[in-house]
């Protein structure tokens, strides 16, 4: 018989004993696991629903167009993550005035930059042949043009309003940031279920729903945050000081490089598959990718609160905490690697249960994604530590090396072996992450000099 008192005492001790920084991380991880779990489940439900609503080709068009629009996030030039680290530093030093100046200035820069980008897109969109870009004649070109405008407009708004998530994370409240997507997903899912009962598949209607709802949620949380907990940080024109742009960008530019890498490695994958093969294979790739990302997303939940905690510990020179935390996170990474092995073994059964016979996933694609996410599970912990330290200069060189390798290899392998080629190209490029491991150990042992400490 289960003794619930023992279980209660164990969890009580787990969440109430230990270093204050560690306790915050534990509580955020626990809450994030639940929230991200909801997000994962809804994400899995989305795929068969949207394929049924739109059809395989239109769903592939939606995925590819979303990826292309996602490229414009590089205009953020890393300011969101730069703000997260700088804000954590000044909070640790209790400099509230400087914190408000950082927040106000970051909002001002993003509004100016993204306002210009939006205006520019409105001017060039009528000149773009989206049917040719997406390699489809199935969807009316005028509808595709309007869809691009809708997605891009809300994407820009989303990118500005999601700064509130960085502010929550800087205060070691990553669980609140992690709640934004699940809330938006639940609302979107409810609307889509209604649409499926009342309308025929409409790509434009879907674009409105999936683009507008996340912005609405972010706007709501922004209002709540700056009316309550972060009232003292509420953006103000009088606190906008562009002299802080350099310090925000000095770190932000480095994060920007890594954001570009992520966009190229994922967004370009969809584009290469659509152009070399067809939108149908984009659907195939994304289903398998989404399935294998489950374990990695769970690992990311564990790691995300560590980023801000690492920044706090590094500012306070608490190297014992850093060493102990790294050991624990490495053990957690091994557990999630085992989870990936189980996913590979049951993948054929899981695909059939999930999407039925609508889409066939080649075994070679599943094997390639296992190796890709397995490598990522190993390197993710070290990436989080480097992000927390803000020592990104070395990583900027290695990530460009990886990108130079990825695109030509991806195109060649996709032509030769099909959709799995895009994943093997990613696996080949990830050998550079071993440098992250060396850098982290040098930093936590205070032996990092030269480029290892920049």
Mean pLDDT score, rounded?
Answer: 80
Radius of gyration: 22 Å
Structural domain tally: 1
Distance between the termini: 56 Å
Uncertain spans: 6-15
| Alpha-beta classification | mainly alpha
Helical fraction:
over 70%
Instruction: Sketch the topology as an H/E string, one letter per element.
Output: HHHHHHHHHHHHHHHHHH
The main β sheet shows up as: none
Question: Roughly what fraction of the amino acids lie in strands?
Answer: under 5%
User: How many beta-strand elements?
Assistant: 0
The number of helices is: 18
- Net shape: globular
Structure description:
The protein is mainly alpha-helical and 454 residues long. It has helices at residues 4-16, 20-54, 56-70, 79-92, 96-124, 130-133, 141-161, 163-170, 174-198, 203-227, 245-276, 279-315, 319-345, 347-355, 363-389, 393-417, 420-429, 434-444. The N and C termini lie far apart (56 Å).
């Amino acid at each position: 018989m289960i003794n619930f008192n023992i279980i209660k005492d164990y969890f009580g001790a787990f969440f109430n004993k230990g270093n204050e920084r560690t306790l915050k991380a534990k509580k955020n991880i626990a809450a994030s696991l639940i929230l991200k779990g909801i997000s994962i489940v809804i994400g899995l439900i989305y795929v068969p629903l949207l394929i049924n609503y739109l059809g395989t080709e239109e769903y592939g068009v939606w995925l590819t167009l979303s990826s292309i629009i996602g490229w414009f996030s590089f205009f953020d030039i890393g300011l969101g993550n730069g703000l997260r680290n700088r804000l954590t530093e000044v909070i640790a030093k209790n400099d509230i005035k400087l914190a408000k100046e950082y927040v106000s200035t970051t909002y001002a820069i993003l509004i100016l930059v993204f306002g210009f980008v939006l205006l520019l897109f409105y001017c060039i969109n009528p000149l773009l042949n989206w049917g040719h870009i997406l390699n489809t004649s199935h969807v009316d070109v005028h509808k595709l043009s309007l869809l691009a405008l809708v997605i891009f407009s809300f994407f820009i708004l989303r990118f500005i309003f999601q700064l509130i998530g960085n502010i929550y994370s800087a205060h070691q409240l990553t669980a609140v940031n992690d709640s934004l997507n699940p809330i938006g997903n639940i609302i979107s899912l409810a609307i889509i279920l209604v649409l499926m009962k009342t309308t025929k598949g409409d790509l434009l209607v879907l674009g409105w729903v999936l683009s507008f709802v996340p912005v609405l949620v972010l706007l709501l949380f922004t209002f709540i945050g700056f009316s309550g907990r972060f009232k003292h940080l509420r953006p103000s024109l009088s606190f906008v000081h562009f002299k802080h742009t350099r310090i925000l960008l000095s770190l932000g530019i480095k994060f920007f490089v890594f954001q570009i890498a992520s966009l190229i490695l994922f967004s370009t994958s969809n584009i290469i598959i659509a152009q070399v093969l067809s939108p149908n294979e984009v659907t195939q790739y994304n289903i398998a990718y989404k399935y294998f990302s489950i374990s990695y997303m769970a690992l990311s939940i564990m790691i995300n609160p560590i980023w801000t905690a690492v920044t706090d510990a590094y500012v306070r020179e608490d190297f014992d905490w850093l060493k102990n935390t790294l050991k624990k996170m490495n053990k957690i990474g091994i557990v999630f690697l085992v989870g990936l092995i189980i996913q590979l073994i049951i993948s054929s059964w899981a695909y059939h249960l999930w999407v039925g016979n609508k889409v066939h996933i080649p075994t070679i694609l599943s094997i390639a994604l296992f190796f890709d996410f397995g490598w990522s599970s190993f390197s993710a912990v070290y990436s989080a530590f480097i992000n927390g330290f803000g020592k990104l200069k070395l990583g900027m060189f290695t990530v460009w090396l990886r990108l130079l390798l990825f695109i030509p290899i991806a195109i060649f392998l996709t032509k030769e072996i099909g959709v799995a080629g895009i994943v093997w190209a990613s696996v080949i490029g990830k050998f550079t992450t071993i440098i992250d491991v060396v850098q982290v150990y040098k930093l936590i042992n205070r032996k990092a000099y030269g480029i290892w400490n920049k």
